[in-house]
Amino acid sequence: MDFFFFLGVPEAEVTWFRNKIKLAPPHHPHEGSLLLTDVSSSDQGLYSCRAANLHGQLTESTQLLILDPPQVPTQLEDIRALLSATGPNLPSVLASPLGTQLVLNPGNSALIGCPIQGQPTPNITWFHGGQPVANATGLTYHILAEGQILQIANLSGGAQGGFSCLAQNEAGTFTQKTSLVIQDYWWSVDRWATCSASCGHRGVQQPRLRCLLNSTEVSPTHCAGKVRPAVQPIACNRRDCPSRWMVTSWSACTRSCGGGVQTRRVTCQKLKASGISTPVPNDMCIQLAKRPVDTQACNQQLCVEWAFSSWGQCNGPCIGPHLAVQHRQVFCQTRDGITLLSEQCSALPRPVSTQNCWSEACSVHWRVSLWTLCTATCGNYGFQSRRVECVHVRTNKAVPEHLCSWGPRPANWQRCNITPCENIECRDTTRYCEKVKQLKLCQLSQYKSRCCGTCGKA
User: Fold this and answer.
1) Which residues in the chain are classed under CATH 2.60.40.10?
2) CA-CA to 274 of 20 to 30 Å: which in 44, 45, 290, 423?
3) Which GO terms describe its cellular component (predicted)?
4) The pTM is what?
């Protein structure tokens, strides 16, 4: 590339500058012109030449622009770092000339990067389905990082499909593309369910519904909003069965204990595909399986029972008027009279071993006498007593008290005349004061106050 400059008389000295920095002489080898070879982006800038002689100087400038058409950068680390910084937890994909793909769940957000370089910096326009994203319906988006990143929010069915970024500058255009695929939940009918029977007329295969997400089975709750396919049972294995032994239920045991016998019917039969079972010779079943037994022992346990002795005398403790307790022995034995542990009769209801009975000795009650006179007419120390005894109802004679223990024993003493002494004169308030004086108890305050008259005498 040549830059020419016309010189004056006398011949002017020419000096070249790029971005106001003086260039070395080899850049302008002849007649003041500047020759640039193998031009690259590093040569871009503002070029100035200054011509000077005795009569003055003149400076002219020109701008050199290096055009570089849009293209994919050789290193993609910068755009990947930009995607990571924009949405650290968001799925992302880089568009490319051949196209890329990103599979997403419904409701996700995603970032699409457009890696591009060129000179001057290309302008980037985003398209969805062949039209600018600004005209796309049902699409929530943001254009970030000077057009290098397209953010799609809340992905739905309308957001999936092809996206492309068109980069253009004065040197040309360049298109890269990608597609977003929204994986959805859907019902799948599993036709390989196990048949309910291997032969006969009742075999059915119930197709199983599975909820899938990207060919992976998930919880059926995710497919709740999807139309559930109608499935019908499918007949399967409707063919004649091999001959086999058929048995009835066991009969009741001939004995309830001590060893009995029960029987059942055993026949060789063949079940047809029509559902009809027909008897066939036993030889046809013996070849396939051993004949089941038709007799077996049952109820081998011993025949046991509860046995008991006669009731004992009615001489236990009295539990009420005329009532006492009597006892008997209860034990487990065989029907042959052999005594066993009680546990071996535990399945049978156990008879009682005690009961109430009428007893003449328990015809008793508590008898009380009248209260004695109170020991004081006032104060806090008066008390009175009475006689309490257990007596027979018929003879009215005293008997041991334990025979009346079934009822509460009445009190045989109580406090009385618990009132303040209003008269302040010194007098005795109990009839035992002479004894108090004889026993020399007057020095104790409780006796001195109650026997004030007697204890005050010399």
Assistant:
1) 2-66, 69-182
2) 290
3) extracellular matrix; extracellular region
4) 0.41
Strand 100-104 relative to strand 172-182, pairing: parallel
- Cα angle 267, 270, 272 (rounded to 5 degrees) comes to 150
Radius of gyration from C-alpha coordinates of the chain = 60
Q: Return the number of other C-beta atoms located less than 10 Å from residue 182's C-beta.
A: 19
User: d(Cα 372, Cα 228) in Å, to the nearest integer?
Assistant: 99
Contacts made by residues 184-189, CB under 8 angstroms, sequence distance 24+ = 184/106, 184/157, 184/213, 185/211, 185/212, 185/213, 185/218, 185/222, 185/223, 185/226, 186/211, 186/212, 186/223, 186/226, 187/211, 187/212, 187/223, 187/226, 187/227, 187/228, 187/229, 188/212, 189/229, 189/231
**Which token pair is 225?**
């909003």
**How far, in Å, CA of 390 to CA of 395, rounded?**
12
Q: Domain 2-66 has what CATH class?
A: mainly beta
At 316, the amino acid letter reads: G
Q: How far is CA 170 from CA 122, 339, 418, 427, in A?
A: 8, 118, 126, 139
CATH hierarchy code of domain 69-182: 2.60.40.10
Question: The tokens 């806090």 sit on which residue?
Answer: 380
Let me know: does 167 contact 123? Beta carbons within 8 Å.
yes
Q: What is the pLDDT tens value at each position of the chain, 458 positions in all?
A: 545 444 567 887 888 899 988 887 665 555 677 888 888 778 888 989 888 888 888 888 888 888 889 999 989 999 999 999 988 889 999 999 999 998 887 778 899 999 999 988 999 999 998 899 988 887 889 999 999 999 988 877 667 789 999 999 988 999 999 998 887 788 888 877 788 899 988 899 888 889 988 778 889 888 888 888 888 888 899 999 999 999 999 999 999 888 899 999 999 999 898 889 899 999 899 888 999 999 999 999 889 999 999 999 988 788 888 899 999 999 999 988 899 999 999 989 999 999 999 988 899 999 999 999 988 888 778 889 999 999 999 899 999 998 999 899 999 999 988 887 765 577 788 888 888 888 888 888 778 778 888 887 75
